[in-house]
Amino acid sequence: MAGGRAAYKAFLLCNYTLLGAASACIFLTLSLRLAPSPCGLLLVFLHALTAPKQIHEIKDFLLTARRKDARSVRIKRSKDAVKFKVRCSKYLYTLCVYDTEKAIKLKQSLPPGLSVQEVYKQLGMPNILLYRQNSTEFSNKNRTLVVQYSLKIEQDIECGGAYIKLMSGYVNQKKFGGDTPYSFMFGPDICGDQKKKLHLILSYQGQNYPIKKDLKCETDKLTHFYTFILRPDATYSLLIDNREREFGSMYTDWDILPPRRIKDVNAKKPKDWDDREYIEDPDQVKPEGYDSIPKEITDAKDKKPESWDDDDDGIWKPRMIPNPEYKGPWKRKKIKDPNYKGKWKAPWIVNPEFEDDPDLYVLKPLQYVGIEVWQAEKEAFEGAERKRKAREEEEARRAREEGERRRRERDRDRGRDRYRDRYKHHRHYDYHDEL
Questions:
Q1: Which residues form a coiled coil (predicted)?
Q2: Average pLDDT over residues 350-373
Q3: To bridge 280 with a disulfide, which of 172, 232, 332, 418 should be the other Cys (CB 3.0-4.6 Å)?
């Protein structure tokens, strides 16, 4: 798909906390801001935690170029690379962006977080890679895993998404993309009015399992916080803007394991099972002459008109009206069945195919955080390009006005200096000195 020049921005703020064994918890927080984005992928190398009760900020995620073991993973097919700086507190890091198109080198100081901005001539799928360093993986075994990130989409999009992915093992950064295996995926997916879904996918034994529930995401232009909490008892909570939207268990809301209990397909309803809630009253007897009650009777108030002529008009008959004593076909009244046992259902039995896994909630040892951002709208890129040009024109206008102001001030100062030099007072030529 060919598109106009597109501006891509993504802000990333990472930190996670590993508490003590009594209330062990792994906490991962990311912040992402899109305005708007082409198809893109971001890969961040995670620095693992080994000691409890430590708080690691973003500098533990972004990889410094000062370290001797830091290295850049270069893509052979890309000749151009963007290098820009990420400022985190007093630390400064370098990020390399590789793309098939000619890249633009960014020279700007950024606040804490990660900012990416590129201009593309056509839609593509770039790989955004960080310098990486040696570190060990970490696991959520016997710990509560909390993944949270904020997302703001500044423009209306018809088709796009932004996902957080946690990856395990070795990831070839040269080939990192949408098909790269992952252990966890979480984020909104919007495509038209019909699809506004929040993806929540867990990996188990190399296979991805999406949640069975239909989760809805936010679609406005405000910032929203998405939080996923996975506990050691395999229960989970999903929060949006700190409000719980879903709660459940991995055993029931994912088709990872067979169900613990199933209905006995071989069971049959007993012959003496009475599932009639109401029955006819056997003691009630039909009254005598009930069947002879007519359905309609003649109207006693109806009288023969005086102008009625039987020879010309025929024999006059009064009109018929419903009989108030007629109650319809006789039926016995319904009473509660004293032998009612309820609706019969097949009993639940233990599923012979179920094998419990106490580590069902445990993901593969995590080492990478990936951010996948994609958007397939040419109009969004063109709108971003128009905004960029308008901003540049406004900055140029302000710079021009500021230059004119300074020029006028310099001319005024120079004129004042020339006037002062021409009419300044020379003390040795003053005739009052001779008096």
A1: none
A2: 85
A3: 332
Q: How far apart are CA 240 and CA 60, in angstroms?
A: 26
Q: Are 177 and 85 in contact (CB under 8 A)?
A: no
Q: Which residues pair with 150 in a beta bridge?
A: 31, 225
- How far is the C-alpha of 189 from the C-alpha of 219, rounded, in Å? 10
pLDDT digits (tens, 9 = 90+) for 290-299: 888 888 888 8
Q: What is the CA radius of gyration of the chain?
A: 40
Cα atoms in the Cβ-side hemisphere of radius 13 Å centred on 68:
0
Enter the tokens of residue 253.
């809301």
> What are the chain's domains?
43-120 (3.30.720.90), 125-259+360-376 (2.60.120.200)
Burial (CB count within 10 angstroms: exposed 0-12, middle 13-18, buried 19+), residue 377: buried
- Segment (H or E) for 405: helix 378-422
CB 42 within 8 A of CB 62: no
Q: What are phi and psi of 408, to 5 degrees?
A: -65, -40
- The residue type of 362 is V
The pLDDT value recorded for residue 176 is: 67
Cβ partners under 8 Å of residue 143, min gap 6: 18, 24, 25, 26, 232
Q: What distance in Å separates the CA atoms of residue 195 and residue 188, rounded to the nearest whole number?
A: 10
CA distances from 416 to 15, 187, 409, 423 (A): 60, 66, 11, 11
Non-local CB neighbours of 85 within 8 Å, separated by 6+ positions? 92, 93, 94, 95, 109, 110
Q: Which residues contact 194 (CB under 8 A, 6 or more apart)?
A: none
State the amino acid at position 222 in one-letter form.
L
Ordered DSSP codes for 330-354: --PPEEE-TT------PPEEE-TT-
**CA 64, 70, 76: angle at the middle one, nearest 5?**
115
Token duo for residue 72 = 């850049």
